[in-house]
Amino acid sequence: MTVVGPFGLSVRDQALEADVQAGLVAVEEGLLDATKSGVPFITEAAQHLVRAGGKRFRPLLVMLSSQFGDPFAPGVVPSAVVVELTHLATLYHDDVMDEADVRRGVESANQRWGNSVAVLTGDFLFARASYILADLGPDAVRIQAEAFERLVTGQILETAGPTEGRDPVDHYLDVLGGKTGSLVAVACRFGAMMSGADETVVDVLTQYGERLGVAFQLADDVLDIASDSRESGKTPGTDLREGIPTLPVLRLRERVEKLGLPDDIALCELLDSDLTDDARHAEALARLRVHPALEQARKDTVRFAEEARATLAPLRECDAKTSLVELCDLVVHRAG
After folding, report:
1. Residue 122, CB half-sphere, CA atoms under 13 Å: how many?
2. Helical (H) or strand (E) element with 290
3. pLDDT for 124-175, tens place per residue?
4. Per DSSP, what are the bridge partners of residue 4?
């Protein structure tokens, strides 16, 4: 049993391990090549998060999904580079919106160079992703465009908030389906599609990726409350400080509406106060870490991970399927 990639997936089959490792190495080379510019400063900014590392979760899914066809097909590695470049671009933009100081354990691009450079660097990465995508065919371009539309729509819906009468938790899960699930689904879809897998297999893996992506983001929501920066690679409680209601906070508010407990009401009032104040922010984090709402968010994470696992049932038994199942367990483990 060996470990593949920063995400820590154990692979039991040596041939599969070799294929996945070789693919991830090629993706890393592709990322560095795609982020080079004739302007040294642009190269430095564009490679800032590439060199900071990361889980390479989406490229890993491309490699595993490609095992259901020909994993050495020419479009597999470029499609993984496209998905990761798109993801990296959204991180540059997210950090500007969140006013984040730390990303992947290093100073965020907006903190280092300012918001304008961070936004434009994200745009540069989107452009490079599109350039690579153009060689993968019109279907790939359409799929990526649809996913990008969903991603942006999810971000806008998060900013706008739920409409009157809409359940906030349902609204938030829809947001995550767009913001995170859409691109993870594309990673699985591209891996299977570029490898020439059957259309039914492509559909199954796309559905799996959508659910796994939501579970992955829900685990991040839990980590944002429960972990410190050494574990998560970013500043804990960033969403709290910015007033962005993630699932633990939404579950707390739901509990207030149902039970109306004084301690819960007081915690909600604290969360609605100015959490740019370090003392209030620290108190809010400490109280949420021991609150039942955090445990409920963990259960929601488990539910989506189990749905992802169940989606894989129609696929033939093989080591790649086993690894995809194990990824569901790893996502749950991240949430504690």
Report:
1. 20
2. none
3. 999 999 999 999 999 999 999 999 999 999 999 988 999 999 999 999 999 9
4. 9
Our CA dihedral for 115, 187, 213, 312, rounded to 10 degrees, sits at 180
C-alpha 296/C-alpha 60 separation (Å) is 29
Nearest in space to 128 (alpha carbons), one of 152, 175, 92: 92
Contact yes or no for 240/211 (Cβ under 8 A): no
- Stated as kind and residue range, the H or E segment containing 107 is strand 106-107
**Packing angle of the helix pair 262-271, 247-259 (nearest 10 deg):** 140
Cβ atoms of 246 and 219 closer than 8 Å: no
Single out the residue of 140, 126, 311 nearest to residue 209, CA to CA: 311
Task: Grade residue 10 by pLDDT with cuts at 50, 70 and 90.
Answer: low
- What angle separates helix 292-311 from helix 247-259, to the nearest 10 degrees? 120
Query: In sequence order, which ranges of the chain are alpha helices (DSSP H)?
Result: 14-34, 40-46, 48-51, 57-66, 76-98, 109-113, 115-133, 138-160, 168-176, 182-194, 199-226, 229-232, 238-241, 247-259, 262-271, 278-289, 292-311, 319-334
198-210: string of b/e by CB count within 10 Å (b at 16+)? eeebbebbbbbbb
Alpha-carbon distances, residue 244 vs 73, 226, 271 (angstroms): 42, 16, 10
**What would the pLDDT profile of 32-50 be if each residue is shown by its tens digit?**
999 999 999 999 999 998 9
The CA-based angle 149-47-238, given to 5 degrees, is: 65
Integer Cα distance of 302 and 304 in angstroms = 6
